[in-house]
Structure formats: structure tokens, C-alpha cells
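User: I'm putting together notes for a lab meeting next week and I want to include a structural view of one of the chains we've been expressing. I don't have a solved structure, so I'd like a prediction I can at least talk through. The sequence is below, exactly as it appears in our construct file.
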Amino acid sequence: MLHVKDLLPVTGYIRGGCSPVGMKKQFPTVIDETAILFDKIFVSGGRRGLMLGLNPASLAEYISADFADITV
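Assistant: Thanks for the context. Below is the predicted structure for the 72-residue chain, given as C-alpha cells.
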């Protein structure tokens, strides 16, 4: 996770507008493995207030993400 002050210079996104879809720089992305249990999950669409409902497997394939146990 980036510190908020580094968000805009590093990613080009403003706080609240970060999204794994359409990243300006390709950062490694990990989705919690429990997401695969759902038909649809919601992620930011890249601007404040825009949410996308997507199939987790399709999302992972599109953004080259991995599934992992990331919960504590």
C-alpha cells in the first residue's frame, strides 16, 4: 500500500479514484482468494463514485492479478 502523499505522483490517481482496471502503471495486483466464491465483486472504476461489478476470475485475467490469502 502506498502512503496517500505518494499516490498521485506514483500512480497518477487521486485518493478515491484508484482502480485495478486501467492502471496508468502496471502494479502487481493481488485479490483475496475468497473473492472467487462470488459471482461478482465490486472494484473502483477509476474515479470517485464509479464502481464496477465484475466476475473475479475475469477481473484477475484482465488485470493479470493473482489470488492469495491476504486477510489477517
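A couple of points you could mention at the meeting. The CA atoms of residues 2 and 9 lie 11 Å apart. Residues 4-68 form a domain with the YbaK protein fold (CATH 3.90.960.10).

User: Perfect, that's what I needed.
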